[in-house]
Design brief:
5% helix; 183 residues; six-stranded antiparallel β-sheet; five-stranded antiparallel β-sheet; Jelly Rolls; 13 strands; mainly beta
Length: 183
């Protein structure tokens, strides 16, 4: 199999490591193979790809879509490096409010699978980073939501005190101020 799949401490969040074939010409790897992912238990159908380019110390997130437009995501870095974060926002989950941080780099080609019911964000660690993620539901502006990147109840160590944020991300609420029905 061209992938190794590693389960994490948050049920459903999976680190997907490709088998990279490198030689003096460069490298080749499969970044997505539906059969392999299904065999690993990732049965998600992706309907949309999103790509962003950001400069060092940009922080995007924490984002999610409210029901019934929740999104699972498969996140990969095409160039540069990011500190990627998945936060469990499923109110009845035993890991509710818990998060995991992963350093994702273009060099390693790893992807992070984040199921529905999680908020997602990342901080750019390199001069620039290009991030691509597959989403299981189409973008719905009416269901677009977010959580404050510095929510003290989540206690995420982003390794930065003053990241570059969008105007939208500067105004996101704390998780405790969001109605559970929105999650």
């Amino acid at each position: 199999m061209p992938f190794t799949f590693e389960n994490t401490n948050l049920a459903g969040v999976i680190l997907c490591k490709p088998r990279i074939f490198a030689d003096d010409r460069g490298y080749f790897f499969e970044s997505w193979n539906q059969s392999d992912f299904m065999e690993a238990g990732i049965l998600t159908t992706f309907v949309q790809d999103n790509q962003s380019e950001s400069v060092r110390d940009t922080l995007r997130g924490l984002h999610y879509q409210a029901k019934p437009f929740q999104q699972a995501k498969l996140v990969r870095v095409l160039s540069g490096a990011v500190l990627d974060c998945a936060v469990d926002i499923r109110p009845h989950s035993p890991t509710y409010k818990k998060h995991l941080l992963f350093k994702l780099t273009a060099e390693k080609g790893e992807s992070l699978y984040i199921p529905e019911g999680f908020a997602h964000g990342f901080r750019v660690l390199s001069d620039k980073a290009v991030v691509l993620y597959k989403a299981s539901a189409f973008y719905s502006p009416e269901h677009d939501r977010g959580i404050a990147w510095d929510d003290p109840d989540l206690d995420i160590d982003w390794g930065i005190e003053s990241p570059t944020l969008s105007e939208k991300d500067k105004k996101q609420p704390r998780l405790r101020d969001i109605d559970d029905a929105e999650l």
